[in-house]
What does this fold into?
Amino acid sequence: MPKALWIAHVNVLDADKLAAYASAATPVITAHGGVFLARGGAYEQLEGQDHTRNVVAQFPSLQAAHECYHSEGYQAAIKLGKGGFQRSLMIVETID
It folds into this structure.
């Protein structure tokens, strides 16, 4: 079964709100089988719009990634971070 990736490109607006979001979101993501592969580390922007932070998390399946995002716990984490960041977030199925 193919795995899935959450790929997020983030612009940080308020570091404290981002930290509150991350503290609440991390246990929800790991409870759904998510593992962070990249989380704000060094990067090189080659094309397109630059972002202040990039995050990649791997999930055991597309369904697990979807369920995590729509879970009560993750939606509560998003509310904690409201106004702290702008992002684009997608789920991408990997090649098995």
In short: The first strand starts at residue 4 and ends at 12.
